[in-house]
Records
---
Amino acid sequence: MPTVVLGVTGCIGAYKACEVLRELQKRDVDVHVVMTRHATEFVSPMTFEALSRHAVFVDQFRLGENGDIRHISLADAAELLLVAPATANVLAKFARGIADDALSTLHLATRAPLLLAPAMNVNMFEHPAVAENLAILRARGATVIEPGSGYLACGWLGKGRLAEVPDIVEAAMAALQRRRDLAGLQVVVSAGPTIEDLDPVRFISNRSSGKMGYRVAEAARDRGAAVTLVSGPTALADPPGLRTVRVRSAAEMEQAVLRESAGADVVVMAAAVADWRPANRSDHKVKKEVAARSIELERTTDILAALGREKGPRFLVGFAAETDDVVGYARGKLVAKNADLIVANDVSGAGVGFDADDNAATLVDSAGEVVVERTSKRALAERIWDRVRELRGARG
Ligand code: CTP
């Protein structure tokens, strides 16, 4: 029976958490409730205590029934931390690592995945501070169940209403399903751009930020895989809990990916590898008076195609950034490179693709297509791994 810690914070939607609790119990989930002081203004801890049949945790300085330190013992037992409703205040505390009550302390102490169902007034939800805090939490791997739109308790019309109970329950069950479902797998993910030097000060590169590949690597890590991330130059920090190999050029990336992929079960080529590099690299800065008017280029190795030629039992995932006939080109790449799955994204839209935090994609494989509407890069990463699991399962 999986254990879910349900965090309840001070908001009118707190009463709906009772229903979330009941629905999870019906699905054989053991639910422990942690409330903030403000939440107890809306619903009595007694209600949750009676429903959950566990003591409700409100006061971080009171020991548990067996003299245990509850924010640690509960944090260890949790397989999912679900906060519904999540106020702007708790999002800010989580984003900044503040630990001044039972729930925020438990949040720092647990390694369980985090699922957040925000609820607040529309102006609060749209405030840049809240948006930034949600972006920070998403980037760290939290899943956010979007609030609904409509009449809010405060009388305003807009986005901010706690998501519907069935949606929260479904998201919680999906998160439980995913925990450690990639355990035992060796995964290699490439990410970021490559840099092709012309001379010591000039280079050719592309707009990849690396965010998508990093999210793919982090999602695999959180689902139990042993992950090696081969990263081109990015502004992103090495993610904890996985091995990061830094490279610069397409040639270095080729070497590193082929070496790391030797024993891998799944290789995801999310990197935007340069297709061409300067045929001649100067060791000295080239002066403009003597510089040629055109740069001669030569092809780099197509790493994904090279992996496809020596495929073995490995499962290969490629990316395709396109601006038109997205699925058509992706299908061509699937066949040409002997990949098992191509994540095709349309980079012509605003707010998705390069350097954005969101993405939208079509997952193209030989059996069909799965459309993933605009969502966070982390959520897309989860969908990619869901599909990899399905397709590997079908292949036996
Ligand atoms: N790729 C690779 N090695 C390269 C170039 C690309 O492994 N030298 C991989 C990328 O990581 C990605 C996929 O191939 O998974 C992208 O396919 P590609 O045909 O190279 O896309 P584009 O560079 O966009 O090519 P085109 O301009 O032909 O669409």
---
Amino acid sequence: MIFEHENVISLKDFEKEDIEFILEEASKLEDVAKSKEKSRELEGKILGLLFYEPSTRTRLSFETSMKRLGGDCIELGDAAHSSVSKGESLADTAKMFESYCDAIVIRHNLEGVSRFLSDIVDVPIINAGDGAGQHPTQTLLDLYTIKKHFGKIDGLKIALLGDLKYGRTVHSLAYALGMYDVEMSFVSPDELKMPKETLHDLEESNIKYNQTNSLKDVIDDVDVLYVTRIQKERFPDVEEYERIKGAYLINKDLLEGKDLIVMHPLPRVDEISYDVDDTKYNKYFEQAANAIPVRMAILKNVITHRFE
Ligand code: CP
């Protein structure tokens, strides 16, 4: 099996074998990720970072991953210091990046932007989050974290909690988990349920899920509690956000005696209390660290594929 994707845009484009291949490749890159071993596999190659929305983990972990493999990065940076401030379009900006680098990582507030770019440029496009759409590389590192902890994904009970409407990480994760034999629960306020389109796609593929607005319904019988932030920036009405925010709070008392791990794509705001950080339940910082081997595996395969 080889990873044959030119682009990484949506989990809908992936097969389970593709996911398993990347997870396997990532595990082989652990020593390089931790700088215990050197790699020059992407020496001479340049990654373009095109971030139109804020990011800490995704942007920096892609940069670290590229550099750990001997490659380099260029970055659009703050729009105010690029020609975006003069009105240059995304398409023109991407065209410039195409001639300056070997792959583009794009984050944008509009859903579908990565697909659009993949149609107009010839270098691989990696979706680093498109609005409330998907965040496929986050999903791969989420699955890597689950598999590293449990030694498997099949057979687990996994609850996705919080903003399932606007949270892009849970959208791609739901599609990915649908390829495994897992018990999936969606826990959210009624206003922030998983989009109908995603539920429809899961049903079309005969994938079962539970939906509830009550954390109590799942907390005693779940292996992974995947918590997400309420995405304030995507609410059309700030008053609705104010009404819904703080809908769930995961704290040490709530988790006491439970046999589960807590994951979160981060950043968190107030949905996981800081008293969880020093407990065995906390997997979210390790999850963020796992971005390096997983994004290294993605870059290695996508960029190498281009030159085959
Ligand atoms: N998980 C994630 O996408 O984090 P950033 O927004 O900091 O990149």
